[in-house]
C-alpha cells in the first residue's frame, strides 16, 4: 500500500506522560469561537454539513463503563469525555474534563481539577461526584476494565471541582493514559440509560441510536477545546463489506472503516484516499492448556511453527497483515524482537511435537464468524494435517463461542480476532488485556495456575513501578516469555484500512477535512469538518 501511515510514529509511552501532556489532537484545529459554517475554505465552505460514516460493527451496548464494542467505543469518544483523552493517531494524551496535569501530593496521591464550567448535554454541571461514580462503575466486580485500571486504587471527591486519585504503584508514569479509559457520565444515570443512549460532556451528543444508524448533533453545553463544526455526525451500520464499499464509492458516506483488501484499488480509482495503518489488531491462536498435549509448551510451539503465515496473509488479507516477531507490532515504540519468532517450519514443528510425546489425532478448532478468521481457519486446518491432526472447525458467533468456552466447553484451539488498543497502547495495558488476572487466563486458556503465568504477572507488576530503560528491559522479558509459552499469541497482526473523501469531494461536492485513519477499530472525527465546494 503506497499510503502506509508511517508519517506518524508512536510516542514512547513509558515515562513520557509529561512529554505528551500538552499535545492536542491532530486535524483541522479546535477551540475557535466562530460558529459552524462561517469559515470560508479555499473553494468551499467549512462546517455546517453532515459528517457521514460507514461502520463495520454493530452493538446494543453503548454503556461507557463496560462496553468493548468497536462501534460504541468509537462513537463514545465524541460524546462522553474522560478526565483525559487519547489521540488514537499517535496515542498522545490531552485534557478533556481535567483542567491540567495531575498534581502530585505524594508517591501515590494525585489531585486533579476539573475544567471550569464543564456541563453535560442535559445542562447539569460536571462535578467530582460524577467522576467518582463513573470510576466505581468502571471497576465494578466482573468488569472487563478492571485489569487495565488495577494501578488506580481509588478516585475520591476532594471538593465539587477536584478529585483525589490514589494509585497502587508509586509514581505511576501511565496515570493519565489509564484515567482516559474511564468515561464520565452523570452519577444519576441508570444502567439502562448508559446502555441505550449515554449522556456526556463531549463536543457531540447522541440524537438517536438504532440497529441501522447512529446520529449525533453538537452538544450546546460543550465548552472544551474541540467543538463540533458540523450540524450532524451520522453513522450508517453497514456490517456487510459490499454495502460499505458501495456506499463509500457512491459518496453517500464520507468515510468508510475496515476497507477490505480487494476494494482498495476500486475506492482509490473512485477518488477516495486510503489510509493503511499498522496497528495492534490481531488474529490470535489460544490453546486450552488444561488439555493434553497443549499443557506441553513444545506442542504449542509445534502448532505455531506449522502455520503457513505467508499463505494466510495473501489469501485472507491480500497482503494487509504481517507475521508477528513480537507481541507488539514493529511500529510500536516499545517493540522488541522476541527471543522466539515463529516461521513456517514443518520439520521443526514435527520435531517439537515428537519431543512433546504427541502423535496427532482428532482435535476441535473453534473460530468466531469473522470472515478473515474463517478463511485463515481453512489454511490452519491444512497445516495441522501435516502434523497428523484432523481438525474439526467449529464456527459460531463471538458471543456463542465465548459463552461455550466460559461454561467449560471442550475444545483444543481457538482462532479469533482481538484488539484492545481502542483503550490505549502502552505494553502493560495490551498484555493485561489477555494475560492479566481475568477470564482469558482463568477460564479460556486455563493457564492461571501455572508457575509461568505467575512469573509473567510478577514481571508485569514490576514494570509498572519502573521507568525508562529499566522498564523496557522488564517488558522485553515479558515479550520473550509470551512468545516462548505461546498460550495466546498473534498469528497475524493486521493493518487497518480506512477510506475517505478527504483529498477529493464526493459526487455532491463535499469532502472531509482533518480526517486520518487510525490503527485500531473505530473512527475519530474530533476536530474534523466537512468542506462543501
Automatic annotation (TrEMBL):
Alphabetical list of Gene3D superfamilies matching this protein: Dipeptide-binding Protein, Domain 3, Periplasmic binding protein-like II
Protein name as catalogued: Solute-binding protein family 5 domain-containing protein
Cleavable signal peptide: 1-21
Assigned protein family: Belongs to the bacterial solute-binding protein 5 family.
Keywords: Signal, Transport
Domain Solute-binding protein family: 93-439
GO cellular component: ATP-binding cassette (ABC) transporter complex; periplasmic space
A GO BP annotation: peptide transport
Lineage: Bacteria, Bacillati, Actinomycetota, Coriobacteriia, Coriobacteriales
CDD domains: PBP2_NikA_DppA_OppA_like
Gene Ontology MF annotations: peptide transmembrane transporter activity
Topological relation to the membrane, as annotated: Lipid-anchor
Pfam families hit by this protein: SBP_bac_5
Subcellular compartments: Cell membrane
InterPro entries: Peptide/Ni-bd (IPR030678), SBP_5 (IPR039424), SBP_5_CS (IPR023765), SBP_5_dom (IPR000914), TAT_signal (IPR006311)
Primary location group: membrane
Amino acid at each position: 500500500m503506497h499510503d502506509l501511515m508511517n508519517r506518524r510514529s508512536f510516542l514512547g509511552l513509558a515515562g513520557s506522560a509529561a512529554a505528551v501532556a500538552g499535545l492536542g489532537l491532530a486535524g483541522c484545529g479546535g477551540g475557535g469561537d466562530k460558529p459552524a459554517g462561517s469559515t470560508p475554505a479555499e473553494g468551499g465552505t467549512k462546517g455546517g454539513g453532515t459528517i457521514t460514516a460507514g461502520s463495520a460493527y454493530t452493538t446494543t451496548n453503548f454503556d461507557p463503563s463496560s462496553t468493548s464494542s468497536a462501534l460504541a467505543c468509537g462513537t463514545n469518544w465524541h460524546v462522553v469525555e474522560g478526565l483525559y483523552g487519547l489521540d488514537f493517531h499517535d496515542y498522545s494524551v490531552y485534557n478533556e474534563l481535567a483542567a491540567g496535569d495531575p498534581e502530585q501530593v505524594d508517591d501515590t496521591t494525585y489531585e486533579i481539577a476539573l475544567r471550569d464550567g464543564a456541563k453535560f448535554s442535559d445542562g447539569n454541571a460536571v462535578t467530582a461526584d460524577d467522576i467518582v461514580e463513573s470510576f466505581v462503575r468502571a471497576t465494578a466486580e466482573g468488569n472487563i476494565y478492571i485489569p487495565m485500571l488495577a494501578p488506580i486504587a481509588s478516585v475520591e471527591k476532594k471538593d465539587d471541582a477536584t478529585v483525589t486519585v490514589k494509585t497502587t504503584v508509586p509514581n505511576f508514569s501511565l496515570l493519565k493514559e489509564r484515567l482516559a479509559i474511564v468515561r464520565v457520565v452523570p452519577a444519576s444515570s441508570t444502567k439502562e440509560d448508559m446502555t441505550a443512549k449515554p449522556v456526556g460532556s463531549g463536543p457531540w451528543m447522541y440524537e438517536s441510536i438504532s440497529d441501522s444508524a447512529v446520529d449525533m448533533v453538537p452538544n450546546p453545553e460543550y465548552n472544551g477545546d474541540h467543538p463540533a463544526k458540523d450540524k450532524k455526525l451520522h453513522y450508517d451500520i453497514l456490517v456487510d463489506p459490499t454495502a460499505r464499499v458501495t456506499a463509500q464509492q457512491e459518496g453517500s458516506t464520507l468515510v468508510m472503516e475496515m476497507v477490505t483488501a480487494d476494494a482498495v484499488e476500486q475506492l482509490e480509482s473512485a477518488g477516495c484516499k486510503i489510509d493503511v495503518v499498522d496497528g495492534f489488531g490481531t488474529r490470535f491462536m489460544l490453546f486450552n492448556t488444561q488439555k493434553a498435549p497443549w499443557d506441553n509448551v513444545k506442542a504449542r510451539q509445534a502448532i505455531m511453527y506449522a502455520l503457513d503465515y505467508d499463505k494466510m496473509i495473501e489469501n485472507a488479507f491480500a497482503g494487509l497483515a504481517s507475521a508477528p516477531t513480537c507481541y507488539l507490532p514493529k511500529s510500536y515504540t516499545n517493540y522488541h524482537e522476541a527471543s522466539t519468532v515463529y516461521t513456517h517450519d514443518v520439520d521443526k514443528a514435527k520435531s517439537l511435537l515428537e519431543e512433546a510425546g504427541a502423535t496427532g489425532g482428532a482435535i476441535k478448532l473453534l473460530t468466531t464468524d469473522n470472515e478473515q478468521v474463517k478463511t485463515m481457519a481453512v489454511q490452519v486446518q491444512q497445516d495441522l494435517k501435516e502434523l497428523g491432526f484432523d481438525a474439526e472447525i467449529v464456527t459460531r458467533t463471538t458471543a456463542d463461542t465465548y459463552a461455550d468456552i466460559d461454561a467449560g466447553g471442550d475444545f483444543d484451539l481457538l482462532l479469533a480476532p482481538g484488539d484492545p488498543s481502542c483503550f490505549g497502547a502502552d505494553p502493560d495495558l495490551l498484555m493485561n488485556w489477555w494475560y492479566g488476572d481475568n477470564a482469558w487466563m482463568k477460564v479460556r486458556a486455563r493457564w492461571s495456575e501455572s508457575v509461568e503465568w505467575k512469573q509473567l504477572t510478577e514481571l508485569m507488576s514490576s514494570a509498572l513501578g519502573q521507568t525508562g530503560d529499566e522498564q523496557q528491559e522488564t517488558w522485553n522479558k515479558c515479550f520473550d516469555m509470551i512468545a516462548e509459552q505461546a498460550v495466546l499469541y498473534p498469528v497475524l497482526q493486521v493493518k487497518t484500512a480506512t477510506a475517505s473523501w478527504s483529498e477529493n469531494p464526493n459526487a455532491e461536492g463535499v469532502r472531509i477535512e482533518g480526517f486520518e485513519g487510525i490503527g485500531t477499530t473505530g473512527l475519530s472525527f474530533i476536530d474534523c469538518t466537512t468542506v462543501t465546494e
